[in-house]
From TrEMBL:
Its cofactor is a divalent metal cation. Keywords: Hydrolase. It comes from the Eukaryota. This is Maf-like protein. Pfam families: Maf. InterPro entries: ITPase-like_fam (IPR029001), Maf-like (IPR003697).
Length: 222
């Protein structure tokens, strides 16, 4: 998995292209030294252009990663690994991102009440100093998305109003945080819990493990 690679990874410059405190907390919890450099990408891709929510999340994460990659190149300070992610909620084919305001959060929570929905996190890993074998050019880019099914209890209107007023829904896909008060709404999940928080920890570790074993962090850069 990842723990045996920490001596190698601790010597690398790992940049998280996100201001999310949850993602940085999860990555640092794995023992990684992470530098925070939030992407400035506007996150305004047209949802209808994608086959599904997973593809949409990966596309957004890709744009975040590329923006930070270009910025580090311009600054002359290449990272060894850039990590970008985007999380969305899907219910009845509708993609929910972060609520715009309290009323938007209430609308989202009402739509999730008493139903199952899916949470998708798209993750993109960029290794600026290595070439992609398929393209024979740098950077090396790996991407994936993870899906978790979440079931909500029936929510009373008073609970929705109180939760929206608490401010916790803001900045969170679907208008709730499973690691906070919003976790009390969840009857059960199928899949990765951390994916609902915004970062699929296990799948990330599997992908990095594969990259290390294939020499991406120790071989001579292309």
């Amino acid at each position: 998995m990842l723990i045996q690679h920490l001596p190698l990874l601790s010597s690398k410059r790992i940049v998280l292209a996100s201001a999310s405190p949850r993602r940085s907390e999860l990555l640092r919890g794995l023992g990684l030294k992470v530098e925070i450099l939030p992407s400035t990408f506007a996150e305004n891709l047209e949802k209808s252009a994608f086959a599904g929510a997973g593809e949409y999340a990966v596309a957004t994460a890709t744009q975040k990663a590329i923006e930070v990659f270009r910025r580090t190149c311009e600054a002359g300070k290449l990272a060894d690994l850039i990590v970008a992610a985007d999380t969305v909620v899907e219910i009845d084919t509708q993609i929910l991102e972060k609520p715009l305001d309290k009323e938007d959060a209430m609308r989202m929570l009402t739509s999730l009440s008493g139903c199952k929905h899916k949470v998708y996190s798209g993750v993109v890993l960029v290794l600026p100093s290595f070439s992609d074998p398929a393209l024979d050019q740098s950077p090396l880019i790996r991407s994936f998305w993870e899906e978790t099914v979440v079931e909500f209890a029936e929510l009373e209107d008073e609970a929705i109003c109180a939760y929206a007023a608490s401010g916790e829904p803001m900045g969170k896909a679907g208008g709730y945080g499973i690691q906070g008060i919003g976790g009390s709404f969840v009857k059960g999940i199928e899949g990765c819990f951390f994916n609902v928080m915004g970062f699929p920890v296990h799948r990330f570790c599997v992908e990095v493990d594969s990259l290390v074993k294939n020499g991406a962090f120790s071989a001579k850069p292309q």
